[in-house]
Amino acid sequence: MRIAILGQPNAGKSTIFNAVAGYKSASANFSGTTVQYTESTVRLNGMIAEILDFPGCYSFSATSEAEFEIRKYLLTRPIDVIIGVLDASQLSRGLPLIIELMELDIPLIVALNMMDEAHRKGMEISTDTLSSIFSLPIVETIASKNIGVRELFNAVRTILAEREFPNRQSLRFQKDVEQIVTRMEQRIPAANIQDQLLSTRFLAMKLLEDDTELLRQLHYLNPDELIRTARGFQRDLEHIRGKPGDTVLTMERNALAQEIVNRVTTVHHPRSRWYDRLDDILMHRFWGYVIMALLIGGIFYLIFGVGAGIETPLLELFDRLEMALKKTFDESGLWYTILRGALFGISGGVAIVLPYLIPFLLVLSILEDAGYIPRIAYLMDSFMHRIGLHGTAILPALLGYGCTVPAIMATRILPSRRDKVIAGTIATLVPCSARSVVILSLVGFYLGAPAALFIYVLNIAIIGLAGKLMASMMPQPTPGMIMEVPPYRWPVPVTVLRKVWFRIREFIIIAWPLLIIGSIIVSIASYFQWTGIINDILSPLTSGILGLPAAVGMTLVFGVLRKELSLIMLVQAIGTTNVPAVMSAGEIMTFAVFVTFYIPCVATIAALYSQLGWRWMTVISLFTLVLAVLLSLLVKSGFLLVF
Amino acid sequence: MKNLLEVKSHKTLKISQIDGGQNVRKKLSVMGIGVDSSIKVIRNAPFAGPLIIEHAGSQTAIGRGIAAKIQVEELE
């Protein structure tokens, strides 16, 4: 059994998915949060089913890669039932997609989501009338509060169990257009279509929309002849309406949708909320920027304050544990070495990474769910244009402050390959939460918050320069921004917490054990003095060019596995958590700058490969290495000059 | 006929024509911004940034390049 959740961006698909599957799919209050589908096996009252959470799409015309991705899936694998998620407060925009979903001729059930928001907007929707117009089961939901989700899946179960497919007749267009569609349908050879997954009506629509991309995937249909036929009908459509075929069909769907909306909704006076007026300040041409700067600066200090406040006592605790270890075991013995390695690995996770990672992800999740991120994109659009991109490209960059991998995945929302390459490079340069941990707990903790802030500012300046440079090497007029600005929403605490857990889980179950094992290995290796070999190989770079202790060589190798490892391994390599005892301020700064910029971690390299191909993967990785060397040299000589 | 950059904010407008490539047109129309839709410019970003238009209860940010291609008529 396969259940697909489909709907327009930001309609709440992932929230519905997460409500039944547990938090497995990132959700946020802006379009394009889900870029690939997420799959999960669930039990619905004893029935086992696969649930698929697809990225949002406005239609099936494949104007974005996400839409293309969905169609590819529909072409290759059968789906038993579709849950069409409809944002009740955006009914007239959402209905055309539901009309398109009906054309697929797959059992469909509609979740009329965000009913609370529709009420606030003063919209009263008669679900019964809507249901009878479509001859479809429609369930009202408020997924964020888990209202109606159970009823929705009960209805899904009924359809699956009884194989009861409501006998619905497709909605019809206006007569003249409908006639052409029917004639096109008749030309599609029925014999060939039998085992295929797409309905003739859906195919006819796509043919009339001149969707050659889709046809190329359907070789069994003898596409050349069909395309020729379709061209004729396209001309007919153009003749009767004076507009290209695809426009005619979209307009028909929109008109049909509008007609239905008028029939099923009554609009009262909207209840205004104080945060509807928030944009007058937050998107203000002057105050918007002031508040954005204050907000981001404030968040930085908040995270730093919380992190440092937790880090200090925890480090003291672990120092005492180490002392105890020293007393209990022979300091020159192998047991002591192994246990000390494990202790460093554990303390690295608890005392150094998590105190910064958790508040950071908490704040990021709140901003995402409240809907502030697209506002940043709006405010920054003209600046992004200066570096040859448009404001939407800032979304991956902002996601990059969380983790670089989803940030690179998110470059899919950009229209051209060139934009993807530039945005992918930028996303790689943005310090992810792991690198933020290095910056905050090394530079911030030992040298003070302004020093840490300096690295962030330097990073933004470098990103600007790198973007500008790449844009001038690949000149192309940037297509303008088209971005939905969602209404503000109160972040739901449970969702925010689950999202934070979703994001740190990977650190706790994969990275942390790796960190402890790595720490033990380094400990043993240094006991037998093996680390020297790696450190010697890297010493031309580490002590030669950068003027750092040769012991950091090993940490940089680990840093490629995961960025936070470089910090913990540093502690391991120099043998103390009291870093300033071994490294000068200049050396700490040089090290941190190098770690911030150099070669992305393996997961990022893999993401770059999958999105941009091996060539750009290599170019970007080498570019970051060169950049890291140059910048840390600059910082090093800066320190020599000034201090 | 004026384009979106030439009209005042908070006036109700009707789109009469969208110039430019098929892609932009398609993208706008599936978001519910097509010929005959009624829209309103509600915000203008400084430094030649995007406009925010309101249409059927939702808000969309549109770059100036695209806004210049959207021809509108002022209603009322």
Structural account:
The complex is a heterodimer of chains A (643) and B (76). Chain A has 643 residues and is α/β, with parallel strands linked by helices. Chain A folds into 3 domains: 2-162, P-loop containing nucleotide triphosphate hydrolases (Rossmann fold), CATH 3.40.50; 175-267, Helix Hairpins (Orthogonal Bundle), CATH 1.10.287; 287-642, no CATH class. Chain A contains 27 helices and 9 strands. Chain A has helices at 13-21, 65-76, 91-103, 115-120, 127-134, 149-162, 175-187, 190-193, 200-208, 212-216, 223-241, 245-264, 279-282, 287-328, 334-370, 373-386, 394-400, 404-409, 417-429, 433-447, 449-473, 493-527, 531-545, 552-561, 563-574, 585-597, 602-642, and strands at residues 2-7, 38-44, 47-53, 81-87, 108-113, 123-125, 138-140, 265-267, 482-485. Chain A is elongated, with a radius of gyration of 28 Å. Helix content of chain B is 17%, strand content 41%. Chain B has 2 helices and 6 strands. In chain B, strand 4 and strand 5 (58-62) form a beta hairpin. Chain B is an alpha+beta fold and 76 residues long. In chain B, strands 1-6-2-3-4-5 form a 6-stranded antiparallel β-sheet. Chain B has a single domain (2-74), classed as Ferrous iron transport protein A (FeoA) (SH3 type barrels). Chain B is globular, with a radius of gyration of 11 Å. The interface between A and B is large, with 42 and 35 residues. Strand 9 (482-485) of chain A pairs antiparallel with strand 5 (58-62) of chain B, so a sheet runs across the interface.
